Amino acid sequence: MRRPAFPTVAPAVVLVLVLSVTTTPRAATLAATVSVAGGEPVPQVIVHATPVSGKLPPTSPKASQMDQVDKEFVPFVQPVQLGASVRFPNKDNIRHHVYSFSPAKAFDLKLYSGTSAKPVVFDKPGPVALGCNIHDWMVGHIYVVESPWFAKTDKAGKAAIDLPPGEYFVKIWHPWMKADATPVRIKADADGEIRTAFRIELAPPPAIAQDKR
Ligand SMILES: [Cu+2]
Question: 185 has which bridge partners?
């Protein structure tokens, strides 16, 4: 049977309905920039947002990994969500012995080559400094965040995070920060962009500063 009314409008109505069903809830974008006093951008800074209400959505943290390449941890800093499991694949043709003494996660992966048997689950928030028992200069960092909204700054010192509408505290972390940065309170409206800029002071460890490995 032929529909008599609005034959040309109907397809448009259907399209709108389909879009509203299939698109995810509207998000705001947090655009953060991190630099030092001179204006130089700081890469590898973790930026994360926590709802002011303290209520976090139920999420399943993504598994992650921290490689060892040419006797270095790659990447230097890796953010993961609370509860995430992390693998430590060894991509060198020698053995490494990865460990941490950090309160957020102390662990020890005895000398191994290839992919270590068991991933490590990070079950407390905070920084976890990584070392290798064989190669003293190998230093890497995992930072465990509580919320699912986090990112790491790129070479231009920029990070972007999509946020559901609401109010948040935005915090940052880098292993060489001299002092904790004051959290910035923001309000995220649907489809809006919030820009925040952080100025930080860095104090690289002397061994790293002298050694351009
Ligand atoms: Cu090693």
Answer: 169
